[in-house]
Amino acid sequence: MAANSGEQSSEAGGGPVRHIPVLLHEVLKALEPAPGKVILDGTFGAGGYTQAILDQGAHVIALDRDPNAIADGQAMVAANGGRLSLIQSQFSNLAAHAPAEGLDGIVLDIGVSSMQIDEAERGFSFQRNGPLDMRMSSSGVSAADVVNRCKVGDLIRIFGFLGEEKQSGRIARAIEKKRADEPFRTTRDLAGLIEIVTPRKAKDKIHPATRVFQALRVFVNDELGELAQALFAAERALKPGGRLVVVTFHSLEDRIVKKYFADRSDRAAGSRHMPMLAAKSAIFDSLGKPMIAASDEEADINPRARSAKLRAGVRTTAPVRPADISIFELPDLTSLEKMGG
Q: Above 70 in pLDDT, residue 73?
């Protein structure tokens, strides 16, 4: 949901980017869509992956939590003769939409879509002034609620962990001081303050507000928790031989996916100080390289691909394991949702 330690994708909160499916060739190669197969696209967006999968003859069940994406996709539904089902749903619930016999493939593109960035009223972009919102599903706690109501210590945790922002303390304290006089209402209100507090240096490749905007978006939409639950759901929904393909755009997401595939593979944990743990039955076999990044050529054409990473696996016949979120070692930020203080 896309930043990372170093590069930031343009969809982290910057200017508009024309929608181009990232790593499309690699995604299709990993999924192997074909007539008779049923593939679930858990992140429909503008339908780039979905249409490419349909073009290969497969049936697609596409999900998106954004009601605007569902509305915009109805023309694609009508044009594909019953081979596309488009459903408003969070992808953590994907197992509920899978057929009883299981899915042949699942693809997840973890990140905010370029359509959302382009809509100023959604509040995702610091370069397009609009309400400080950032809610993908247009409901629940907004970014303005977080900025105006969270305690300083909580803001530091959000910016520091979810945005990997080194100046999180300075920014949080400046927010506290300014909101005492007037609440933050627009993206420009927040971005303007960050520009003053942490001015952009000549060597900086990204806008100083990028990481804070990313952190707010990830927190507001519980993107890391959603991703973790979606991976567990995929384990239940895929049939043996089914393929799980995940494209991420920053290190936090990629770390979750990497840990998931490591935990669900047949690699036993251990060290020279500790005995080897009993090997578990592999739920996923590896598929190609452990990680695939976009080529320089694709990154030149599509800036959004610069930080993209693809990981994939093939479902085995092993039984489903308990959904233990502790394997991801995520901090507990759920208490912050109450917006205390």
A: yes
**Contact present, 10 and 33 (Cβ < 8 Å):** no
pLDDT level of residue 335 (50, 70, 90 thresholds): low
Condensed to tens digits (0 to 9), the pLDDT of residues 160-194 reads 999 999 999 999 999 999 999 999 999 999 999 99
Q: Measure the CA–CA gap between 21 and 313, rounded to whole angstroms.
A: 20
> Could you state, in order of their start, the residue ranges of all structural domains in the chain?
10-114+223-328, 137-216
State residue 19's pLDDT score.
59
Residues 149, 80: contact at Cβ < 8 Å?
no
| Residue list for the binding site | 47-49, 64, 91, 109, 116
Instruction: Name the E strands within 35-115.
Output: 38-41, 59-64, 84-88, 103-109
Closest CA to 52 of 296, 290, 245: 245
Q: What is the CATH number of domain 137-216?
A: 1.10.150.170
CATH architecture classification, 10-114+223-328: 3-Layer(aba) Sandwich (3.40)
The closest alpha carbon to 8, from 196, 212, 199, 246, belongs to 212
**Numbered residues of the known binding site for S-adenosyl-L-methionine:** 47-49, 64, 91, 109, 116
Is the overall model pTM greater than 0.70, yes or no? yes
